[in-house]
Design a protein that fits this description.
The complex is a heterodimer. Chain A is α+β, with helices and mostly antiparallel strands. Chain A contains 13 helices and 20 strands. In chain B, strands 1-5-4-3-2-6-7-9 form an eight-stranded antiparallel barrel. Chain B is built from four helices and nine strands, in the order βαββββαββββαα. Classes of the chains: A alpha+beta, B alpha+beta. Chain A: Residues 1-13 have a biased composition (Low complexity).
Chain lengths: 677, 233
């Protein structure tokens, strides 16, 4: 029992009361022993002063102990270096001075400017070792990641250090063996690394130093570039993961119809960086369009005697089986070709169907359709034949058959029809759109009734109609050319030249020029009969002279020839008249001339009757078409009434035997003979 | 002349002979609006979807109403429209249009209504209108572009109004809002089936979706609920 802590304990006898009831008395004899209580351990004496005062070393009190322990704790690590000493709850985001001291709020407690690491606690060494080992582990992980990313480093196993560190004498014999084993193992690992390096080098050599990823990236960019190229020509769309395009050729109307779509996919090229001819885009074409086709138009003569069928039933060109199409082969073609061919096939197939439907509608024209051939009556004995031909879906030239002009014209019309917008908005935008012509919009005060509107409405003609007209015209033009060639080739005198003045699809005009050699000076004046025209329309040919005479020849080539020859006869008449007007050499008077005269059979035979200046002889020339002219000469009849016919007989001269090579020369010679006699 | 048989293969192909064009008195309409600054985007999309080519228009529309003398509730709206071009002054051509009440068909995705329009040529239209008993309610000027796809007609236009009635020069014109009105319509012959046309119209309108939301707007409800102010679309 200590009495007070601060005061030094002085041994003091403490009287213990035995019993509370007895009053304490000093005189009563005490029983018991004398107890002296002393502290077990005294405070150690620090020093004894010379005056006998002992200075004690105070033992640590509890607060001292707490203080000592507190000083050992590293507060900075617990609380954090940025927080002020006393207020740990203040927000961390306050501004810091240059030295990192929080400026305003931490003024109360102040912070440690120099961070003094407090003395380590009992677990500090453990913490330090742990920390070290963790940082070493971090380093190890970093090393491993670096090694993983580089291609040329490989982690090797480290031999167990214990076995190396303790080479005991027993192991000396086996040491060599183990050494060899270790060395071999090391070498094996080195070999592995070198193998990998070599493989990479070889691949790099093949790929020109490029990695697999880079090649994939190149392929992807190539794909998108080609896709862009494709989009310049084709309509391409993506739905979800599915890229596809549209083969239809319509500009107006709905697009992306299901039967006309083609799929686009990426061709998986090998990982070699080779520039191959294959495009990276693979295209799949609908099976029924996977062939090349051509629509051939021809004018054929309906030859009854020939006995040939207009279409060979045994020919397999048309027999196309959908199942035979090899999708892989189709994919192997370049998309530029395959899409173009497929669209062409679609276009021609649709056109052929339209032509057949139109042919059915034309009730007054006979037509026959069999598989892929359409025959329709053109005129007379001629038929127009349309044939849709199939060719295999491969590269190569296709020989174009039929009439090339008609093929082209048909193609142009198909495209033209596709590009024509038949409906148009009306004058006011809120009125319904219409296909009636614009002239019917603003009708004026009168207004039109239904019949007038029907008259003015433009009824578009179908392609077949137009084709028929154009084909008929083409046939007639061909015929006209043949006739012209025949005539011009065979006629030496006079020289006939022809040229086309105007060549259109439905109407053409040809001009003939008749020239006599050496007599060009006679052309200077009056040129009317030296030229005549032939106009060719879809229905027939008309020969026109400059003075307005029209000779209709329909489609008969013989008539055309006859008409041309007739015009030549007229020319000869006028030449004759021209020649005889020459005052000095062959002056003759034209008494009578009739271009429209007929001979005794009723055929046209222009004639001309002349007499010489002395009025002694008269000459009559009758120009028969296609034959030599008839020349009759007689004495001039002075008085018609008193003349006796037997005194003035017509003497026939032979044209052939006349002197002179050409007609004009003959005429000249004849006139000069008969001038004075 | 070759005897032509008219064989109609597909229903949506226009019959190309004048005899068979019936007078179209019904129309299916959808309305929508778009900010004027987004109109070029809409035009680009229309250029891709529609038939090639668009037409510009600049027209002035006046709405008249014919009130019967007994009650002022029942009124008939007649719309008069004229061309407002400055190059050639075609001032004598007018369009008279009557728009009827829309059909109360809930299932139809578009507004279906009777629409009768005709072209009129008149020197003095206003006198004529007045003598008919038409009183002008409002007028506006519309300018925009017209696109077609098949027989679907797509219009987008900006509306302006004049501050002083009667003068239409550029100083007194003021735009009504910064939105453009988009209207898609199909004209149908009288008493023809409108459902397939309405469905195709709705399908087409859906393709303009994120740019313009075309709706079947119940304008007639608004019109009849507030008789004082004619809520125009």
């Amino acid at each position: 029992m200590e009495s007070g802590s601060a005061s030094p304990s002085s041994p003091e006898p403490i009287v213990i009361d035995e019993g509370p009831e007895k009053p304490p008395s000093i005189l009563a004899p005490r029983k018991g022993v004398d107890l002296v209580l002393e502290a077990n351990d005294d405070w150690k004496i620090q020093e004894i002063g010379f005056d006998g005062v002992e200075k004690y070393l105070k033992p640590e009190t509890f607060t001292d102990q707490v203080g000592k322990l507190a000083r050992r704790v590293e507060w900075m690590k617990l609380v954090g270096s940025s927080t002020p000493y006393e207020n740990a709850k203040i927000d961390q985001t306050e501004e810091l001075d240059d030295e990192g001291v929080p400026s305003r709020k931490g003024e109360k407690g102040g912070t440690n400017v120099e961070l003094v690491t407090p003395e380590a606690g009992p677990w500090s060494s453990v913490a330090k070792y742990l920390h070290e080992s963790l940082s070493q582990l971090n380093v190890l992980l970093d090393d491993l990641s670096v090694m993983k990313n580089t291609d040329y480093m490989k982690a090797l196993t480290v031999l167990d250090p214990i076995t190396i560190a303790e080479p005991t004498p027993e192991h000396i014999q086996t040491m060599r063996g183990t050494q060899w084993i270790w060395k071999r193992r090391a070498l094996q690992e080195a070999v592995q690394v070198l193998d990998i390096a070599q493989k990479q080098r070889q691949q790099a050599l093949r790929n020109l130093g490029l990695s697999v990823d880079y090649i994939a990236h190149l392929q992807r960019t190539k794909f998108f570039e080609e896709l862009k190229e494709m989009r310049e020509i084709w309509r391409v769309r993506k739905t979800g993961d599915y890229v596809y395009g549209d083969l239809s050729y319509h500009i107006f109307g709905w697009k992306y119809d299901t039967p006309n779509l083609f799929d686009i996919s990426r061709r998986s090229l090998s990982n070699k960086f080779e520039t191959s001819d294959l495009s990276i885009i693979e295209v799949s074409v609908p099976k029924d369009l996977a062939r090349r086709s051509m629509l051939v138009v021809k004018i054929v003569k309906d030859d009854i005697e020939s006995g040939d069928l207009f279409r060979d039933p045994k020919s397999n060109d048309y027999a196309y089986s959908y199942k035979e199409v090899d999708a892989e082969k189709v994919k192997a073609l370049h998309w530029k070709d395959s899409l173009k061919w497929a669209q062409n096939t679609l276009l021609l197939r649709d056109t052929f169907n339209t032509l057949c439907k139109d042919a059915i509608k034309l009730r007054n024209r006979l037509s026959i359709i069999r598989d892929n051939v359409l025959l329709i009556r053109l005129f007379d004995d001629y038929l127009l034949r349309f044939e849709l031909q199939w060719f295999p879906f491969e590269a190569g030239q296709i020989h174009e058959e039929g009439d090339i002009y008609l093929n082209r014209v048909l193609r142009e019309m198909i495209i033209g029809f596709e590009c024509t917008k038949f409906v148009r908005p009306q004058f006011f935008c809120s009125m319904p759109i219409t296909h009636l012509p614009e002239s019917l919009d603003l009708r004026g005060c009168g207004g039109f009734d239904a019949r007038q509107i029907a008259d003015r409405a433009v009824t578009p003609r179908s392609i077949l109609d137009r084709m028929l007209d154009m084909a008929a015209h083409r046939a007639l033009v061909n015929m006209m050319t043949e006739v012209a060639e025949l005539m011009c080739g065979s006629s030496v005198d006079p020289t006939i030249q022809y040229k086309w003045l105007h060549c259109g699809r439905n109407y053409s005009k040809m001009m003939f020029q008749v020239v006599s050699k050496d007599y060009d000076l006679y052309l200077s004046g009056h040129r009317m009969h030296h030229t005549f025209f032939a106009s060719v329309s879809s229905d027939g040919i008309t020969i026109e002279t400059k003075d307005g005479m029209l000779i209709k020849c329909d489609r008969d080539s013989a008539r055309v020839l006859y008409a041309c020859q007739y015009c030549v006869c007229i020319y000869q008449v006028s030449m004759f008249a021209m020649v005889c007007r020459n005052q000095w050499i062959t002056p003759f008077q034209t008494l009578y001339s009739n271009v429209y005269a007929l001979d005794d059979k009723g055929n046209p035979a222009p004639n001309i009757l002349l007499c010489n200046q002395a009025a002694t002889r008269s000459i009559l020339f009758k120009f028969h078409v296609g034959r030599d002219p008839e020349i009759l000469v007689r004495r001039f009849v002075v008085n018609e009434k008193t003349a006796k016919p037997e005194e003035h007989p017509w003497k026939k001269l032979s044209y052939r035997k006349l002197y002179g090579a050409t007609f004009c020369k003959k005429v000249d010679a004849l006139l000069s003979f008969l001038r004075d006699c | 002349m070759d005897n032509v048989v008219d064989v109609d293969e597909e229903g949506n192909q226009q019959k190309l002979s004048a005899n068979s064009t019936p007078y179209q008195t019904q129309e299916c309409v959808l309305y929508g609006s778009i900010f004027v600054k987004n109109v070029p985007d809409l035009e680009r999309r229309l250029a891709g979807l529609c038939d090639p080519g668009c037409e510009e228009f600049y027209e002035h529309e006046m709405s008249f109403s014919l009130r019967t003398s007994s009650t002022s509730d029942v009124k008939t709206d007649i719309k008069l429209r004229r061309r407002f071009r400055t190059e050639h002054q075609i001032q004598n051509y007018w369009q008279l249009k009557y728009i009827g009440v829309p059909e109360p068909d809930q299932k139809c995705p578009t507004i279906v209504r009777k629409e009768i329009s005709s072209l009129v040529h008149s020197q003095d239209m206003m006198t004529y209108a007045k003598s008919l008993g038409l009183r002008m309610d409002y007028e506006y000027i519309t300018q925009g572009k017209l696109w077609t796809k098949g027989n679907i007609k797509i219009l987008h236009s900006t509306l302006t109004r004049t501050l002083r009635a009667g003068t239409y020069d550029s100083s007194s014109l003021k735009s009504m809002s910064d939105s453009a009105l988009v209207e898609i319509s199909i004209s149908l012959p009288e008493s023809a089936e409108y459902m397939p046309a309405a469905k195709s119209l709705r399908d087409f309108a859906d393709q303009l979706m994120p740019l313009v939301n075309m709706e079947k707007i119940d304008y007639w409800k608004k019109m009849f609920s507030t008789p004082a102010a004619p809520a125009r679309r």
